[in-house]
Amino acid sequence: MEFGWSTAEVEYRAAISEFVEAELAANQSNVGISGVASRRSVGRSFDFAAKLAERGWLTPHWPPEFGGSGATAWEHIILGEEMWSRGEPRGPQYMNVNWIGPAIMVAGTAEQKDYHLKRISAGDVIWCQGFSEPDAGSDLASLRTTAVRDGDEYVVNGQKIWTSYANSAEYCFLLVRTDSAAEKHHGISILLTPTSTPGFEIHDIQGIVGEHAFHHLYFTDMRVPVSCRLGPENEGWEVVRRALSYERVGSPRYARAAFMLDEIARWARAEGKLSDPAVAERLALARARCEAARLLAYCVIDDRNKQRPPGPNAYVARVAMVQADRMVGELAMEIMGSEALVTNSLADEQFRSALPAGVAAGTLEVQLNLVSRAVLGLPRS
Amino acid sequence: MDLEFSDTQSALLDSLRSLLARHAGPARARQVMADGQCDRDLLEALGAAGFLDLASSEGAGPLEAELVVEEVARAAGVVPAGPRSLVAPMLTDQHIPQVVAICEATDRGPVRFAAAADLVVVLDGDSAGILRPEPGEIPPVDSPYGPAMGYVPRRPPDELPGVSARTARLWWRVAIAAEIAGRLGAALDLTVRYAKERTQFGRPIGSFQTVQHRLALLHVAVQQSTWLARAAAWSGDEETAGAAAALSSETARWGSVELHQLTGAIGFTEEYDLHLWTMPLQALRVELGGLARHSHDLVTARWAERHERVR
Questions:
Q1: Which residue has the higher pLDDT, B273 or A309?
Q2: Which of A170, A200, B48, B154 lies 20 to 30 Å from B82 when distance is taken between CA atoms?
Q3: What's the total number of domains in chain A?
Q4: How far apart are CA A38 and CA A45, in angstroms?
Q5: Å from B118 to nearest chain A CA?
């Protein structure tokens, strides 16, 4: 056990940091609460992703045959930390790069790999994930959108909800039920569906956590070629389960929270509030939670780096990341007082971006269920 | 970065655990605490096997010393392992006697293991000194939170030249966090076992989601303190040490109450082991001024203007 960075890793971080600093300074630093899904941010993400792709920084951890540069899992998290903490506009790319691409690598046909992995690693495509439904949230496997085989096509009917980036996405990683009689975890298939397919309807849902954060998708007799199916029919759940285990430690929220905490502490210092013991206590505990979340995420990265399948460490890390993110949001409000209430204040930005942290990508409660069963060995209720 | 134990570290931990199985554990702790003593036999055994001097040994270092403090705490060892093996060796090259206590001169309360101490490290503002109490000079103070506590005499200590009190506090914080993490971890293991065995309403209480989530949150909290303590020991970084001490003290506050709540009435009895870990946790969480002081120093180190970093 040792916690040091190699010289190469230190240089890698410095190079990325320098690039991000310059890029974001030229394009205004923060995404603000208009959010990573906003039109402005998504628009910028294409330019930004293209520049990253040029430097081999978009899919660095992918194998070279799929457009990666074979970087280590450590270099990948360093890159994520440096970029995400600064408020980079690459939000929509995280999904592609972190788990949709890898899922296609594992389960895709030669054609699917060739087409999709090339596009993802070039940074010119945005995806959305068609997972949640009005009656299938945490209990995702109870999803009811159906796909009925008709010759070389599936006929899809149903709806998805809370889908981020759908308005700008070209493809949807869509979960559908292809066998309604099977046990709920079986009978699910994945369709890599173009959002331009006739019968694919997208409605914006207005919300409080940033523009275009949520959409409602409707599918009416939507015909999707069988060649769009990822993996075997009815066995999509296993592919998704593996993919999601990578998403638990996806965007390094702890790094953004730590960055925002530094900004808030600087604000408190300028206001002469740093010597207030109540303020100091909250700042210190938040700093400790950000650092702890970073270390617990590193335990997951260590496994990843050693080519091990994701283990229960990921559930622990995600709980810690949510706690860190939320704590910074909560203290920002308290420390800034009524100045927090102005749109896009430091506190506003952190509060609203942390609010969904325990819901997006699987609820905190589900993570706690997993910790209690997989780690502590407690019996099912 | 490699977050698994190396072969050397694993071998060290194996042999440490087998020593602790013979010389420590709840039964031994209960006996030593009932006698109001510091467990000198345990220190003797640890010292003879070289486990107390890893911080300054070749092929080992502060991280290995931290791992020892964690393990001794898990085994409910009634010894000041942290001050002896993680603080004192970072301050002096001199021979270090068996029982070491550490205190802030400005803190008026009793000090853990002072009544048994061969040497007391005394921090006063920016300076660090040592006191060698005469036998019987420090009478034990009656406390449910640990044996051999005592008031350190207010005579001037011998100054440790060239030693900064900030450095001493840094390692003291790592030691506090390591011991809290070890004690809480062992107490949590006990409570998880209890939740699997204890049946009410016809099912194990550990099958109720309200119990599961609270134990899961405790597990996350123990992991947070453990990894912060290890990272701080490895880096010798003041901010990480402060973060480790702050978060572990806070976790000791709510965590020990949670563990007792989840255990119910049996947890308040002398015969049940839980208190062997949870009661000393209270002494640890107020040490060095507790959360308030850890927070103040961390905030100063990270965010105050014109503040030099200490390593």
A1: B273
A2: B154
A3: 3
A4: 10
A5: 33
Q: Which pLDDT score, from 0 to 100, does residue A244 have?
A: 75
- Asked whether residue A63 falls in the same domain as residue A143, the answer is no
In this structure, are A104 and A92 located in the same domain? yes
- Closest chain A residue to the Cα of B290, Cα to Cα: A281
What burial letters (b/e) apply to A354-378, b meaning 16+ CB within 10 Å? bebbbebbbebeebbbbbbbebbeb
Looking up residue A223, the CATH number of its domain turns out to be: 2.40.110.10
| Chain A touched by B216 (CB under 8 Å) | yes
Based on the domain organization, do A112 and A155 belong to the same domain? no
Residues in chain B with CB shorter than 8 Å from the CB of A2 are 1-2, 6, 63, 234
Query: Which class in CATH covers the domain with range B168-303?
Result: mainly alpha
Task: Give the pLDDT confidence of B95-120 residue by residue, as tens digits.
Answer: 999 999 999 999 999 999 999 999 99
What does the block give as tokens for A327?
Answer: 């704590």
Nearest to A1 among B6, B225, B302 (CB): B6
> Closest residue of A to B228, CA-based?
A292
Residue A32 and residue A52 in one domain: yes
Dist. CA A94–CA A80, nearest whole Å: 9
The answer to whether the predicted template modeling score (pTM) of the entire model surpasses 0.80 is: yes
What pLDDT was estimated at residue A33? 47
Cβ(B45)–Cβ(B19) under 8 Å? yes
Decide if A380 is inside a domain.
no
Assess whether A259 and A217 both reside in one domain.
no
Q: What is the DSSP secondary-structure string of B108-155?
A: -S-BTTGGG-SEEEEEETTEEEEE-PPTTSSPPBP-TT-SSBBPPP-S
Look at A287 and B298 and tell me if their CB atoms are within 8 Å.
yes
Q: What are the domain boundaries of chain B?
A: 168-303
The CATH number that applies at residue A297 is 1.20.140.10
Partner B, chain A 9-48, Cβ-Cβ below 8 Å: 9
Asked whether the beta carbons of residue A2 and residue B4 sit closer than 8 angstroms, the reply is: no
Q: Which of residues 13-72 of B touch A (CB under 8 A)?
A: 63
Domain membership of residue A292 as a residue range: 248-375
Interface contact flag, B212 A369, Cβ < 8 Å: yes
Rounded-to-integer distance, Cα A278 and Cα A276, Å: 6
Is B183 an interface residue toward A (CB < 8 Å)?
Answer: no
The CA distance from A252 to B57, in Å, is 37
Both A121 and A138 in a single domain? Answer: no
Identify whether residues A255 and A369 lie together within a single domain: yes
Regarding whether A143 and A83 lie in a shared domain, the answer is no
| Catalytic residue list of A | 247
Q: What is the CATH number of the domain that holds A77?
A: 1.10.540.10
Chain A contact present for B280, CB below 8 A: no
How many CA atoms within 13 Å lie on the side-chain side of A304? Answer: 26
B145: distance to nearest CA of chain A, Å? 25
| Contacts made by residues B196-205, CB under 8 angstroms, sequence distance 24+ | B196/A377, B196/A378, B196/A379, B198/B264, B203/A379, B204/A378, B204/A379, B205/B262
Q: Which of A77, A102, A125 is the last residue of a domain?
A: A125
A62 close contact with B: CB closer than 8 A = no
pLDDT for the residue numbered A91:
76
Average pLDDT over residues B235-242: 98
Q: Which residues of chain A have pLDDT under 50?
A: 29, 31, 33
**Cβ pair A368:B4 closer than 8 A:** no
In a domain, A49, yes or no: yes
Domain end (from A93, A125, A157): A125
Residue A1 lies in a domain: no
Which chain B residues are closer than 8 Å to A284 by Cβ? 242-243, 246, 291, 294-296, 298-299
Tell me which chain A residue has its CA closest to the CA of residue B194: A378
Tell me the pLDDT band of B17, cut-offs 50, 70 and 90.
Answer: very high
B195 and A280 within 8 Å at the Cβ level: the answer is no
